[in-house]
Amino acid sequence: MASTNKGTPSTTSARQALINAEEQYNKRIDDDISKLVDCFTDIVRVADNKDKDKFRVAEEGYQIESQSAQIVRSAESLLGLVTELKQHLLLNDTALLSQLTKQRSQALESQRYEIKETILKMQQELQTTIYDLEYVYFRSLKGA
């Protein structure tokens, strides 16, 4: 893939790393899918039991079991690949991460503002209460 865009060396190397990762993922997908198709084809091919002796049927049964195991391994490999891709997306989606960080920051700022307002109200109430208590105390001293 030729690039007409001349970027910084780090951008070019990052782009090349992404291209290599994509090629590796595509190769894994192609390999696993081709194994699945081959195994299913082999199972269908040996499934016909007409005019076969017991030894041949047992042999083909074993072959079907081994092909089934390979199908399971290939399916697990594909599921692992899906998990890797999801994890990569979650960890490297900078737009989503920055949006989530911004939302969290706004929520924390809102909480900070609410707490500050509550403290200011409590301070005002405390000042009023202290003033009232001092008034009552000094008034009781004058009256005594």
Note the topology.
Blueprint: H1 9-46, H2 54-92, H3 94-143
Key features?
2 domains, Helix Hairpins, single chain, mainly alpha, 3 helices, 144 residues
Summarize the structure.
By secondary structure, the protein is mostly helical. The protein folds into two domains: 7-92, Helix Hairpins (Orthogonal Bundle); 95-144. The protein is 88% helix and 0% strand.
Strand content: under 5%
Largest sheet: none
In total, the number of strands is 0
Q: What would you say the CATH architecture of the largest domain is? A: Orthogonal Bundle
Mean pLDDT: 86
**Strand-pairing-aware structural class:** mainly alpha
The low-pLDDT segments are: none
Which class of the largest domain in CATH terms?
Answer: Mainly Alpha
Order of helical and strand elements: HHH
In total, how many domains does the architecture comprise?
Answer: 2
The name of the CATH topology of the largest domain is: Helix Hairpins
Number of helices: 3
Helix content: over 70%
- Tell me the radius of gyration: 36 Å
Overall geometry: elongated
Ends distance: 98 Å
Describe the structure.
There is one protein chain. The chain is mostly helical and about 140 residues long. It has two domains: about 5-90, Helix Hairpins, CATH 1.10.287; about 95-144. Helix content is about 90%, strand content about 0%. It has helices at about 10-45, 55-90, 95-144. It is elongated. The chain starts with 8 loop residues before the first helix and ends with a helix.
